[in-house]
Design goal:
With about 300 residues, this protein is α/β, with parallel strands linked by helices. It is about 40% helix and about 15% strand. Helix 4 links the parallel strand 3 and strand 4. The structure holds phosphoric acid mono(formamide)ester.
Length: about 300
């Protein structure tokens, strides 16, 4: 494996290799005992053409915990602002011979374009609505730690399935590992085609929530909508926002997850987001570090 561009390219054994390594880094971090020199001497270039809090910060922390140096290239202070194009920017940066590139871009498949031109591993930190593979890996790690398994879990994803790269990567990963996956969305936010035929579609919380072990909420990806598809945030919340009341009524035993950014009282209410017994949201954030350490170790380590 040279790059990590999407879950679509991974088989079950490759996914498990990342998850097993992530679990070992999770345990090592809690004991303070891991190889802090694993990536000493490596320089990792972060090319984030879209904003990020969790992914960018946790990749940087993961790299530094392994001894690597990181350069956070910034499009807003780069020569893109003087008219240099994307390909010339990539060719310029690759000529400096980084040891790996972690990137996020709004264009479909942009990391594949970079992987084809660069001489180093490329890791996709999110491209368009296509894929966000490390998010799916850290979500799977979180579920596996909580339930001890992925196979057979009933996972329900609510929200803007059509525009979400998190949904895309999670639907593929969870299906490949044998979870029973459902999606709940208004018709305008439901893709025409899902990656696996056995993924069930619902258009209401009352129909889709019962039997769930995990309920994952997603943000409305307004930056990827070509027009307003939702009447208002309030109307969306009223019909599809997850509340403690709905969880108690339809999925009383389920835990709640959200990859963030958390847009409170649109996709999820404060009461369930902050429920200490049922919300795994901050555990997901924490698991970004061991998961990304695992990815860097496997792809960039000698
Ligand atoms: N989940 C996620 O990708 O969050 P950021 O946009 O903050 O990186």
């Amino acid at each position: 494996m040279k790059h990590l561009l999407g879950i679509d390219e991974l088989d079950k054994a490759q996914i498990m290799a990342f998850l097993d390594k992530a679990q070992s880094y999770s345990e090592a971090l809690s004991k303070g005992d891991w190889d802090k020199e694993r990536l000493r001497g490596k320089i990792i270039l972060h090319l984030f053409f879209e904003h990020s809090t969790r992914t960018l910060t946790s990749f940087e922390m993961a790299a530094k915990r392994l001894g690597a140096d990181v350069i956070n290239w910034n499009p807003e202070t780069s020569s893109l602002t003087k008219g240099e194009n994307f390909i010339d920017t990539i060719d310029t940066l690759k000529s400096m011979i980084p040891d790996a590139i972690v990137m996020r871009h709004a264009d479909y498949g942009a990391p594949k374009t970079v992987a084809a031109r660069s001489g180093c591993p490329v890791i996709n930190g999110g491209d368009s609505w296509r894929e966000h593979p490390t998010q799916a890996l850290l979500d799977a790690l979180t579920m596996k730690q909580h339930f001890g398994k992925i196979e057979g879990l009933n996972v329900t994803i609510i929200g803007d399935i059509a525009h979400s790269r998190v949904a895309s990567s999670n639907l593929q990963l969870l299906s490949k590992l044998g979870a029973n996956v459902r999606v709940i969305a208004p018709a305008v936010l439901m893709p025409q085609k899902l990656p696996f035929e056995n993924i069930e579609k619902f258009e209401s919380l009352a129909d889709g929530l019962p039997g769930s072990d995990v309920v994952m909420t997603l943000r409305l990806q307004k930056e990827r909508m070509d027009r307003a598809l939702i009447e208002s945030d309030a109307a969306y919340f009223n019909e599809f926002g997850l509340t403690l009341e709905m969880m108690d009524k339809f999925a009383p035993k389920a835990v709640v997850m959200d990859p963030g950014p958390l847009v409170r009282n649109v996709q999820i209410a404060d009461d369930i987001a902050e429920d200490p017994t049922r919300s795994l949201i901050l555990k997901q954030v924490a698991n970004g570090i061991p998961t990304r350490m695992a990815v860097l170790d496997i792809l960039v380590g000698d």
